Amino acid sequence: MIGCPPEEPSLQQFIQALAATSPRPHHAALLETAARLLPGCEFRHALTRSGWYRPGGVILPDGTRLADDLEKWAEAELDDCGGDMGILLERHAGAGLLATRQAGRTHYFVSPIGPGPAEFLQLEVEEVEEVLDRHLINLADLPDDLPDLTEPMLPAALPAQAVGRPRYQFRRLTDVRQVLARQPAPVGGQSPLGRFMGEWSAGSAGARGHFCDHWIVASREHLDRYRNSLLTAAPVSRHARQLKPFHWLPEARGRAMAEQLHAFDRAAGYPSAWYFHLVAGGVTPHAVAYAIAEDLGAEFHYLPERDEQILAGWLAAPYSV
What we know:
Layout: H1 8-19, H2 28-37, E1 44-59, E2 65-67, H3 70-80, H4 85-92, E3 98-112, E4 120-135, H5 146-150, E5 156-157, E6 167-175, H6 176-181, H7 192-202, E7 215-223, E8 229-237, H8 255-268, H9 273-279, H10 286-297, H11 305-316
Antiparallel strand pairs: 1-2, 1-3, 3-4, 4-5, 4-6, 7-8
Helix pairs in contact: 1-2, 10-11
């Protein structure tokens, strides 16, 4: 079912409801909340990226919370001590204060809103859990200044025991068409992401499913040296973790090469996957493209004609995204 970008009131209701939704395996409650409050959108889980964390707060050994934000607490305490780190240490060194961190995972959900490769919504939700990080003050290596207190080189680390329940946090809801429209491109040319999506539509992959069935778009906004806002974006495979690197042998030619390509495509779940993983992510070595070109020159035609044309375009003007 093709949906529409949600109205702002619906999105705000969803954000509020999300904060009260407990994380569960497979995100059934989250998806039910999205279906109810974001009508016309049919989100499905696409990918989870984990392993990141943020600074947390300050607690006492009995779990009593002193602050949610370690850095703000430390700055305020140092100001109250007249900027004297020695006084701050005298005040707190015997209290056994503990620093926490926010351990997180980012879940990506997608909802097609049209047939084009950029015509989908991407919902990003963080699952965050506060855990113990370290003793705030390492008595064996006392901090000399504020950065040494908040980000010590030699922390007195603690096992990452949970001190709070996991919770969802809304990160953003993106119309990928808008992301694509903001990508920098040479005069008269396409952005790398635009070319990548255009090749998806033109090749055999586009006829076998929506782009977001197999890829998400990771984006990041930053300022350039002139303080202009720039949005960079790159496709991320939903299946990269399950795919083995393309084990190409230099002597593989003709039928042997065709069998390797088809095996990779079967594992990825769509035709011409080997090519898209050559352009994005580097799972397929560039040498494979040149070996296929040699096969085509020797009249071995095991690719659909439209995929041959896409490969010819890459060979004439290689790029990555």
